[in-house]
Amino acid sequence: MAMIGRVPEFESKKEDFETYLERFERWLAANDIAAEKKADVFLSVLGPTEYGLLKNLSKPRKVTELTYKEMTETLSLHFKPKPILIAERFRFHRRYQKEGETLTDYIVDLKRLASTCEFGQFLNDALRDQFVCGMSGEAYRKRLLSEKDLTFKQACEIALGLELAYKDTKELTERADHSSAGIHGVGEKQKDKPQRGSFHSSFAASSKSAQSFSARRKMICHRCGREGHQPQECHFRSAVCHACGKPGHLKKVCKSSKRVGKAQLVTATTEELSASDDAFELFTVYTAQGQKDGLFLQLELSGKTVAMQIDTSASVSLIPESVYKELLHDCPLQPVEVHLSSYTGDTIPVLGEIQVPVQYNGKKWTLPLMVVKGDKTPLLGRNWLQKIKIDWGKIFSLKQETATQPSLKAVLDNHKDLFRDGYGKIRDFQARIRVERDSKPIFHKSRPVPYALREAVEKEFERLQRHGIITQVERSDWAAPIVVVP
Predict the structure, then answer these.
(1) What are phi and psi of 197, to 5 degrees?
(2) Both ends of the chain: CA-CA distance in Å?
(3) Suppose 195 and one of 157, 200, 255, 408 were both cysteines; which one would form an S-S bond, judging by CB atoms 3.0 to 4.6 Å apart?
């Protein structure tokens, strides 16, 4: 009798043993292989490497002395040992939907991980909870959380339906835009022909106007990467790129740069992205620096004292990975769709976000805190400063050194030229700034100044210019921003 189907030799590098054994036993059943011949048939489909492995595992007994059950059990224990339950559940609960991963692939992998977790009768509840909490679409999660008595099957059906609806809507929108572009082209061709009546001419004019507005709205400026304006109207048309040194565009849209651009603007590529998915700038030059630089505030974070540098120009508060592992590892790290960049344009890798209990001056809060890669200085940004009322008077207080009146008067009398009103000048000396021969000019854009401080800043500029400390120029290839301290 002819054999049904064919089972190739088992090779552990191409297929796991459990899956191969299932296919092999189905083949034995389909061909009515007798039980006493199963061991011989099984040995005949083992590759040379796997046969030698079974031979070594069965010593001191010979392979030919083993039964079919003993052979399969020996190889099963070798290729798939009994997993550690805690580790398997840890992998399951750490599984989140990856960027670009479809919900179908995410569901399949969750089921695979759950198969070794021994959830028992709580399997569906565990799958449902991790599926909802781990998906990347915020809009999908909100929709599922609004359902009462939600099951894992219902959650999968609703989420897959939303994903399919989004893809279809996106495809239809693209087709509609393509069709409207075709209508616009027809309208322009007919514009040169004489028309009878006003219907055709008004149709062509309205079509052209609507399409022009749509194209203007969707056009992305090649100078700054933003929408809604023409390149010749861009505010950055005279800016100098920090990557290539050429004028006319910003670093984030530079085509010659291989570095990741500054995330000053993040546009939602999918409709399910929520308003919290954003980009933040840290205007602090975020480099390794000593604790003595800047103003630091002692805060109680989850019961541990952490010195955080006050930075009113940082959009968010953050801590480095080293501080998180040492002091705040008990706070679970959650993924977050946030991009951070320093003022110099360097991207700051974000590991995630934690919700940490904060205590200061007898008051308590639970606030979000970004965890970034590296060993940097913890920053206290504006999102925390809006909640925490800091005693600024205490921070800026100075410890005055007492001096005897006679000694101070003697110093002033002996050095009248130094302490007279006004500013002095260095004479018979010319300063030189040396730069590398092939260095390119760097022009940093100005930092935003709060409206309440603009008048004071302008007066200070006028005072410095009046005393000859600074001089106004029409243009410059080099520029560095000032830091305004209230």
Answers:
(1) 85, 180
(2) 94
(3) 200
